[in-house]
Each structure stands twice: as C-alpha cells, then as structure tokens.
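Ticket 4471: requesting a sanity check on a complex prediction with magnesium ion. Repro inputs:
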Amino acid sequence: MKKIAILGSTGSIGKSALELFDGPLSDYRAVALSANDNVKEMISQAKKYKPKYVAMLNAGAARYLRGKLKGVKVLSGIEGLIKLAVLKEADVVLLSVVGAVGMVPLLSAIRKGKTIALANKEALIIAGELIKKEAKKHKAVILPVDSEHNAVFQAMQGNKKEYIKKLIITASGGPLKNTPFENFSKISVEQALAHPTWKMGKKITIDSSTLMNKGLEVIEAHYLFDIPFEKIEVVIHPQSIVHSLVEYIDGSVIAQLSNPDMKLPIMYALTYPERRRGVVKPLDLAKAGRLDFCPVDFSKFKAFSIALKAGKAGGTMPACMNAANETAVHAFLEKRITFDKITEVVEKTVSLHKNIKNPSLEQILKTDLLSRQAAQEIING
Ligand code: MG
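Returned structure tokens:
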C-alpha cells in the first residue's frame, strides 16, 4: 500500500490517478487532495476517497468546504498546497496542478526529500536550475508523469547515462498539424482544443496546438535527465504510439510504445520500480498498420523555437516565457485574443525581458509576476 498526496486532483491527471485507485491501484490511498476552486468535484472526491487533508488554493472555496467536509482537515491558499507537498504520511506526492503555481510546492517537497510524481512541467521550466540543485542536495526523487518523459525514463532503465547519444521526443503535431499558417488567426477555441490523439486539460491542449508544449518538454527533458539541449531532438509522430526514444552510442534506439492513455505513465510513476496490470487498451501493431515520422515545421510553429531559445538562455528567461504563455493562453481561452496572437504575445514579452543568470527563488517569482503584467499589457494593446 502506498499513500499518495494529489495536488491538483480535479484536473485531468488527478482524475485519471483516482480512477486508477478504483482499479489496478485499489490498495493505494489518497491521503490528501487539492484543487483550485472546484468545490463540487472536491466534495464528491472527498466523499469517495476519504482523504485526511484537502487543500483549496482559493480561500473562499476552502471556507465553503470547511462546513461541508466533516472529519477532513481543510487547508487554504498556497500555504495549504505546500503543507500537502511536504506531508509526512505521503509516500509519493503527485504534482498535477497546472502552471507556475506548482513551483513552490514542488521546491518544498524536494527540500523534504520527498518522492514526487511530476505532471506539472511549468515548475521545472521556470526554476529548473534551482530545482535540480535542491533535488540533488536533498536526495529527492522526481518521477516523470509527462508521457514523453515517462517513455524516456522507461527506455533508460538498465542503461548507464554516459551511453546515451540523444533523446528523441515525439510530438503528435497537435490539432493544427495540417492547417496552413495563414489560417491561424481564424482558429476557434474549439478547433484548438480538438486534439487528435490525447485527452488532456485545456491549457496543455492549447500548448499542443501552438507546439509550445513540445518546446516546454525539451526544457523539461533537459532538467529531468540532465542531458544537454544539443542531444535532444523532436520528431512529429501523428499516431502518438511511440511516446519517445533513447538512442545509445552503439546505434541502438530504445522506444516505449502503447496506445495513448495518460493512465499508463501516471501508474508507472506511482508504482515505480514495480509494474501493475494496466488499464490501457493493448497495442495491436498490425491493426495500427503504420507509424509515421516527419520533421517539425519550425516556420509554422514559432512558439516551439521561442520556448527552446528561452530554455537555452536559462536564468529567468524560461520563467518569463512561461508566464507570458500562461497569460496568453488564458486570454485566448477567454476569446480576448486570436490564436495567432498567443505566440506573438510570448515573443514580445520575452524580447522585453532582461535576463538574470543564476536567479534566486525570489527573482524567479518576481519575473513570473512582472512578465504576466507585461504580457497583459501587450494583450490589452
Ligand atoms: Mg507530454
């Protein structure tokens, strides 16, 4: 039996994790759950999974739940999330909140030497250098939930790191793979959310349609596996069956394959180093028929290159880029800007930022805040 604290239990990853507790992980227990402000979903989750602790980022939501959930300790705000991240009772912290708000809880868990199943890539993007340093110092373990990174992690088992020649991260290409760039200003929210292969939350689905997500994932891989940017490649693979590959110095390429279903990487991160009988539809290669691969169209998906450049610059640049992107995606989802403007807002915000090398936590948080304001100003015109 393992006790899990789920930060972000009402989102797509959190819900999938809890569904695993109904099936192959029926001996696992959700000792703590957290959400932003979705009280309805949290009440039903708390009734079913009986956590000891619940934390709501939104203080009003926490107050409301205190009257509703008897026998549950209800915490509130970022302090509440941090308390759950360092909970003594939890064997694994599943960090599946969306966006930069996950960074301080992640750092707190790391500083307590916790084992973290990491689904929140933004935290690692904005504070990668700091997180890597602290994880080493406190011997914290970060297990990747992101499907590509989980695939790389699986393909690395039993091999020494010095034998790795490069990582090959696959990308489905998103819903706009075949849409000409000229039409990007007319893309509706519904079109951008219609991902062809993966069922995910809204923020990451929009990031997939701009290919920002893949840029973020290269930075994520760089920090998770301590591999230089030059040794990380991206290839478009529309079927989303090969989740990523590792090429070794002898020319061997090891891949992890499965039908696309986030429950598989979530489960591997939670059960590692063990495996459990899965819930993913078995892969029938003859039925799949073909697996296609092609290069990324960098001229069409500029967000990818912008993210990568920010990642390579390091310092506070990735935090600025990420904050601008979160702000722009939010504005697009609220129909305040057109689809093509998401990348433009990020590009402009990044161009105005003065990079700070080896930033402190305070400098990263300040960059995050100021970059959101700068992006908002650009959006407002
Ligand atoms: Mg991914």
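Notes from triage: The radius of gyration is 20 Å. Leaving this open until the requester confirms.
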